[in-house]
Specification:
By secondary structure, this protein is mainly alpha-helical. It is about 75% helix and about 5% strand.
């Protein structure tokens, strides 16, 4: 356990340092050329039907879809009396949403396309939706990383565990790529979202494990 905790701490700190590094360079506009090169490399070779599929796939990371999936999983965990996992899930997802909102307001980076406002289930909140870091990517990385963690602990058969993990990683990568293809974000928005999401995931996981060790609840 100490070795695992140490490794998780290293990953969290490393990702946070990468996030800070990209954030500083983005604020100073040092990564614009790199963003444009990546955007051209990603978008220009794609046939129209792939771009259209990406436009649909990007909705997986929307706040509405993530919220619905979170509620369903949370309800399942409550029914199974896995209170610890339930607390971890809600802490990750809702804490991650608040973290993303705070970072967007802090950096206030304009989107590569037309500026939009935050919408929830079709209702506009009349709040500007900034670009840095990508909310769709953050929500996807956080939620599906939790599902990978859940699969690792609840699924006994190795083949099913690996298949489920690869599938969930594929969803994360698809959503992240779709944000560039649809012109909603700069690549550095995506990279920043991934790094800060991994940081947030491991911070919550380490806090959860420390809580579980200290209080040792009967169920988790």
């Amino acid at each position: 356990m100490p070795e695992t905790y140490k490794n998780q701490k290293i990953i969290a700190v490393s990702c946070f340092i990468l996030f800070i590094f990209v954030s500083v360079l983005s604020i100073q506009n040092h990564l614009i050329s790199l963003d444009q090169v990546i955007i051209r490399a990603v978008r220009e070779p794609l046939p129209p039907f792939i771009a259209e599929l990406m436009g649909k796939a990007t909705k997986i990371g929307s706040g509405e879809v993530i919220l619905i999936i979170t509620v369903i999983i949370g309800f399942y965990l409550i029914i199974r009396k896995m209170s610890g996992y339930t607390i971890l899930l809600f802490s990750l997802v809702f804490g991650g949403i608040l973290l993303n909102f705070a970072l967007k307001v802090l950096f206030q980076r304009e989107r590569p396309g037309e500026m939009s406002v935050i919408e929830v289930f079709g209702y506009s909140l009349e709040i500007s939706s900034y670009s840095f870091p990508s909310g769709h990517t953050m929500r996807s990385v956080i939620l599906f990383s939790f599902l990978i963690y859940l699969c690792y602990h609840l699924i006994s058969k190795q083949l099913i565990k690996i298949t489920a993990t690869l599938f969930l990683v594929g969803i994360i990568l698809t959503v992240a790529l779709s944000r560039i293809v649809t012109g909603a974000h700069f690549p550095t928005d995506i990279f920043a979202a991934v790094t800060i999401s991994i940081t947030w995931f491991y911070v919550c996981l380490m806090a959860y494990r420390k809580w579980f060790t200290v209080f040792n609840p009967n169920t988790h």
